[in-house]
Design brief:
heterodimer, A: alpha/beta, 3 domains, five-stranded parallel β-sheet, four-stranded parallel β-sheet, 14 helices, 37% helix, globular, B: 330 residues, mainly beta, four-stranded antiparallel β-sheet, 1 helix
Chain lengths: 486, 330
Amino acid sequence: MKPSLALAALRHYIFSKAILPSGRVLSVLCAAHCQGDIGLKQKNDNALGDKLFGWKRSTEMVLLRSTSFRLARACRAGLSLATLLISALMIAAAPTVAQDGEAPPAAAQPKPATKTMEVVYLGKEYQEPLPLSFAEKVITDKGIQGARQKLKEANQAGGFLGYSFELEEAIVPEDADVVAKAKALLAAGNRYFIADLEPDDLLAVADLPEAKDAIILNIRSSATKLRQEECRKNVFHIVPDYAMRADALAQYLIWKKWPNWYVMRRDTPQDQDYLAQVQRAAKRFGGKIVEDHLYDLPPGARNLDSGHQQIQAQMALETERSPDHDVVWAINSDDDFGDYLMYRTTRPRPVVGTQGLQATAWDKSYTESGGMRFQRAIPRIANRPPVERDYTAWLAFRSLSEAAQKSGSVEPETVKAYLLSDDFRLEAFKGQALSFRTWDHQMRQPIILGGGTRVPVGTSPQDGFLHPKHLTDTLGFDEPETKCKF
Amino acid sequence: MTRFGLATVCATALLLVAAPLAHAETIFVSNEKDNTITVIDGDTMERVATIETSRRPRGIMLSPDYKELFVAAGDGDIIDVVDTKTLEIIRQLESGPDPELMDIDPEGKIIYIANEDNSMVTIMDLKGGDVLAEVPVGVEPEGMAVHPDNTLTAATSESTSMAHIIDNETFELVANVLVDSRPREAKWTKDGKELWVSSEIGGTVSVIDPSTWEITDKISFEVPGVRPEQLQPVGMDFVKDEAFIMVPLGPSNRVAVIDTKKKEVADYILVGQRPWHGEPSADGKRYYVANGLTNDMTIIDLDTMKATKSVPVGRLPWGVAVMPGKTGAQ
């Protein structure tokens, strides 16, 4: 282990183990001695610190230099070892410290962690299509990074109220049996699952008899059937489905007075699902699909020398016979041609759909309503900006931790009741409270319009699209339209 | 100073000779998008100067002696300190990343800063700028309020939905109170017997009893024809000897007036779009509220509880601070 890593791990250990029971800021103590110029703020009879390291001690105040922000960089390898030693001693000494100090009022003590919620991240390493653009990084840890970030936050907050959270990462290889893995986890007593699974696997896990009282949060699949005919009582959907995405874009296009859409698509099951939802959105909001055009040239390799010349001609060809339209609606889940359409269509028209302007739960340039914090947090642990699945994983975990803390219980039955109650009002950088639709367990949420743009274009629902209860219920299947029967 | 600024100063000076001193106060408004502070003369309600600040100025407050104005610049990761006489930035406090709101102890010695990005409250020596301590709190701290007797400081954490109470002597947490979603601001009553916390997404204001750290009252909002999710309480300011507390309600374009005795909403006042923070005038007769989306500041008469005037400021105005008297530039 690298010394800096060892130090980080150690600081984390001290923070979690020492600060919570005693309520003391031991992490600051440990961290600060690397700087040299530090006083101990606690009235501490244990003079060990003085003897070993000659800390300048004052009972008045701690003088921590502002350079402490760059602490990690400043600490050298040698000091890390020393840190290890003194930290072990500090942990041993912690209870003494707490007793020696003046006791704060009884109500004031942070409660010890008594209730633990164990959450499983259940995933599979599915082959994902390569992004068409070389500028998009190939990301193999989508989702899990959001869950890891939330684990940190949940424990930071939960510690104040007597809750602790654990995350078990169960991501199986593509050829492994995820259902068997789920069975083993259920047998071990796990009931909370963040599911990074495709529809078939998700349903197979949800239909296990032992999963009956589990709470499974879908963070990956937008398949509408999971919210409709194939809905399950033990499954909640964090990620928006294709119906919500199509409605979010359609509202914007209608608001812009761009009602004529030329659809260009592939024919995968996802594409067929999305197409059906675009057709539904057209009917709901007064749009018109002027033509549904299947693009059937084989995808081939994504980078070719001089390849752009051919593409330039091809895209013009594919769009020149279309009836007049306001936008091209690309439906291309495999991401193998949609981005080629921009600036290459016969008529100068914007591109929306799975490429170009997209409807998404998270966008890499979104900063509103505190969203900047998430944009900064994920790169710290993942060395890359957050993507939508990081956000939905974070949001799934956040729903569980919030429900536990607010309902006062980590029992699945109570947590589930709370998630479906009117009291559940989740804050998640969207400027309004998020909650679950009781009829299909889909999370209602504003949807960002961005994705293929450098800055977000907007957020749906758009002004003027009204609903008697929740404006966000204008996106996706509303109660009277649902085919879900639990 | 710009030519416009000079011209305004001259015009103001002329006006001052002619008109009796009505309010004799100066209003500062932080403009999040413009990276500026608009300085308004309380007599004329005209802009007298514009101060350029570090990037994304939001939280704004005066030192107890009114000599310095503190401006938290979120994207600049710094707090600018403005001399209220010369209107120049005289120094900066290294607050740590993304400072948003802050409070200063009654003696003017220590500043408590919420660092949204690293979930810490930074406690700093106001004069020297030395960091005295960093207290880990919940995720995304925002509201800060020093107890009137300087024994405690309340900090709200937006993502964690808590009010954390810090002991000002030991800089340790003594209590954590769970409130509704996304708590924004915290305010103590003058006697220190009530702590008020606004929850933006929860849509409520909680009143906490510091002897038990229990929530004793919770006030929610209701306006016919306005969707409940738009009633988002953000700032809070006691007015009229604490008979009322003014609560700007964000996207509902209203300021709620809460009767502090009855713990009920007494009135809603329509203002500009998306008001977040305000401040009462120095004489306590008016309330100034910054409207983020209409780039103006509404003046509310506190005797009649009516909006009387609107004054243009910069883009995306955020916070307001009021100083009795004039700046050197006026």
